[in-house]
Every structure is written in C-alpha cells, then in structure tokens.
Amino acid sequence: MTNITGRVREAFRGDQRVDADALIARLDAVRRFLTAVDGLLPDAELVPAHTLVERAGTRLALSRDHTVVALAGATGSGKSSLFNALAQLELSPVGVRRPTTGVTHACVWGPLEGANRLLDWIGVLPRHRFVRESALDADDETALHGLILLDLPDFDSVQRSHRLEVDRLLGLVDQVVWVVDPQKYADRVIHDSYLREFHRHRDVTVVVLNQADRLPPAEVPRVLDDLRRLLDTDGLTGVPLLSTTAIDPAGMVGLRGALERTVAERQAALRRLAGDVDTVVAGLDELVGSARPAGGPDDSTVDGLNRALAGAAGVPAVTEAVQQAYRHRAVAATGWPLVRGWRRLRPDPLRRLHLPGPADAGADPAESLVAATSVPDPTAAQRSALGLAIRAVADRAAVDLPAAWPGAVTAAARSRLGDLPDALDRTIAGTDLGLGRRPLWWRVVGGVQWLVTLAAVVGLGWLVLGYALRALGLPALDNPMVGQVPLPTLLLLGGLLAGLLLAALTRPVVRWAARRARARAEQRLTAKVARVGEEYVLTPVRVVLGSYAQARDALRDAARR
Fold first, then answer.
1. CA proximity to 30, closest of 400, 289, 279, 398
2. Does residue 136 carry a pLDDT above 60?
3. What pTM value is reported for the model?
4. Whole-angstrom distance, CA of residue 341 vs CA of residue 360
5. pLDDT band for position 94 (50/70/90)?
6. Cα dihedral angle (174, 74, 220, 215), rounded to 10 degrees?
7. DSSP H helical segments within 336-439, as ranges?
8. Got the DSSP string for 489-528?
C-alpha cells in the first residue's frame, strides 16, 4: 500500500491550476495573430493555429462539467482490459488478434445526456457509448461523475484508418493515459511518434505500466525506473508513472485515484488547451522572432525610389517642356509685337505632351488639366531602375525580419506595380506646373514694347504722310527737330531700336526665369510622384510591417501563462 500511495502522490506532483480567463485571453491572442498574418504567411504554417482556435472554441463552449480521458496504447498493452476494469463492465472487446480495438468506446460516469454533445463532437458513435451508473453502486462511483473514459484503437494497428482515428482523437481529448506493457514499454514507435510529441502536455499526461503482474515483484521497480529514464529523455520529466494490473482491483487503486483527482479539479480541459497553446506558440515563434524591425526603409532608399519613379513618370521630359514653354510664352508676351503673332503660331511645348498650354494661362489648373498625358513611355532602363528601387525598398524594410516575412514585404511592395503607370500619368496631368499665371514683369515689358512700337508706327506714319503730301504738291508738314534729327525719324528709328534692345535685354532674364520655372515644376512633380510612391509602394510595405508588429505582440501575449 505504501508504494501505491507514493505513486499516487507522484501523479499529482507539479500540478498547477489554469485560469480560464487567462486561457481565453491567450486564445484571443492567437486569433489576433492569425488576423494579423492573414494573406501574408503560407497557409500551411498556420494550420495548427487555425485548428487550435476552432477546437478550443468548441471545447470551451461544450460541457465544462465533463473530463474526457483517453486510454491509448499499442496492441497487446491491455488497455481494453484496463478500460473494462475501471468501468467494472465488459464494454470494450478484448482479444489477441490484431487489430484488437477497431473503434472507440466511451464510458460515461453520470447521466449520458449531459455528455452527448461532447461525444458527438469527439465523434464516438452512439452505439459505442455506455453509462457507468447503477443503483447497486450507491455512492461508490460518485467521485468519477463527469468522467468520460475512451478506449482508443491501437495506434500501431495494421489498418491505417485506426492510426488516423487515434491521431484525430489525441488532438481532442482532455487527458491521455498511455498504457504500455512490460514487453514493449521501450518501443520506439510510442516514444518517437507519440510520447515525445506530448512534452508540452505533461500536465495532462499519465503513463501506466500495465500487466505489472506478469513481472516478478522485484523487477517492477527496475522496469519503472527504466521507463522513467525513457520518459525523461522524451521531455516528460515528472509526468505521473503508475503500475497497474487489470486482474487485481488493488492494482487499479493508483490509476483510479489519479482519475478521481482529475475529475474533481475540473482542470484537465483547461490544461490540455493551455498545452495546445504552448505547442502552437512554439511552432509560430520562428515566424516572428523577437527583434523589432525598423518602421520602413531609410531616407536614402526612399529618395532612390522617388528618383526612379520620377524617371518612369517622365518628369525630366516634362520639366524640359516646362522650361521651353516658359521661354515660348515669355517671348510671346514680352517680344516685339510685330513678331508676336508669328510666335503664337508655333505650338506650345506643353501642348505636345497634353499639358497646359497658352490657352490655359490664368485658368484654374483643376479645370485646365487633362486626365492623361502624352509623356513618352519609360525606357527599358527606367523600368529596370524602378524595379530595382522597389526591390531595394523591400529589402531594406525587411532587413530585420524573420525568414518568413521578406517575401511578404516584397510582394506588398510590388502589389500595385501594375497600377503605377496610370497613377503616375494622372499625377503628372494633375500637377499645377506653375505656368497658369502671367508674371507682372511680362506685362510691364509687354506694355513698354507696345509703347515703343506705337512710337515707331507714329513716326513711320508721320514720315509717310509727309512724303505723300510732297508727292501731291501740297504743303509739307513741319517736322519738329530733336537736335539734328527730325522727330518722326527719331520716333521710327528709336522705337525700332528700343524694341530690339528691350527684347535683347529681356532674353537672359527669360532664360533665367525659365530655369527657375523648371526647378519649381521639378520640385512640385517630384513631391507629387513621391506621394504616389508613398501610396503605391511604401504604404503597402508599412502595412505588412505593422501586421508583423501586431503578430509579434499577439504571439507574445499568447505565450504568457
């Protein structure tokens, strides 16, 4: 009796309570993680997390008054005999041919009605459900009320469907009692494929050395010690290890006591789900790491992107056209009025690109600009430079991210690449290039040109009228003298020379102002193009980085116990 008591105490060593609210918070953190990474990480990497969220939600919504314990073992381990001995009924068939147990049997302590929904979810057929309730028991079975004991198929069955059923049920039950026998307790299948995988579920794992009556009494402690060594190697240090025999009621005391304690605590389901969360978090940890990445690419990388976008958008061609258009319009406004008409016959350089022309001067840019331009398409070199700049943005943004994320960042950076040409064209077409208003100095110079031209015309008319009067024999006009030069001649020659001189003096100013107009247009276009880059390249990248940060924080919350 002393040895049994010691084994029972071992079954409860290291138990810790799981707070239901804390567990729900951890599960919610896993949901937040899945929301954050949706569409960014491979679905295959997220299957365990999705499965956990679905199963946990269903299990918590079902009965918390029941504890589902599964007996799992290999063929010949005697788990069906153990199942019948615990139920004190012949419920599960016992045999010697493989496979022995082909379907899952369930025994419910207490009313079956309260457990049916849980058994429906687990997938135990109604005809394989039994109730351990008898008037002859009096209160003998009260301590196990709420227990649902399952006898699983053999996990080493020659029928693959049996193994798949075992694997499915092991993911659903609250606690697992692994049943081994003295002959095959060290079998690699159970240790490598099953026990080792349950190292994060030590709180809901019990190992039973069944059929201990087949060993000499002196050999039982030695076998248990060797089995404990194997369990420690499997990462199951401290899990309850009991010896049982189904043919002697005294040999069931330890296991029954462990089950009674499990039922009384109502903690097995919570501990199982907590272990599932631990397993999922450990599997997802390498997807997020712990380092906090930069908020995005650095300024030099963004500048490189903006230059590449400007090249692809045709900003150099547009700014060159702005400079030419400014000179064209300035000369037309300040040049000699006699040649202005000829100047206006020449096409405005911006009109060739379907950008604002002379008719738009002084108009509202929002009304005068068209929806598309005729800016030349980017060359192969410009397209290549843009692609490299976008790749540089993605690489720089993902430099500190774990291996699973750079692909998502690159995909985000390129996600709207097909929309960029139209967006850039609309941006160029919708940018006020600063040529909508006529500068004041144009009007001043133009007015002076009209005055000197008028003076030349007056002088010319005066001279023509004098010659005509003399030709007709009429009295000639009295031409005032300015020094030694007649006034009409002075008006004509002075007006012509003044107009030409003013035009010559104005040309350097026009060229300087045209360069300034080009610089202003380049600054405005570059700013607008940068906004396109922000919207179409940088924002998607920052969204992914934000999702990564959310996923990392959510996984950190899910890891908190």
1. 279
2. no
3. 0.78
4. 18
5. low
6. 140
7. 337-345, 349-352, 365-368, 380-397, 406-413, 420-429
8. HHHHHHHHHHHHHHHHHHHHHHHHHHHHHHHHHHHHHHHH
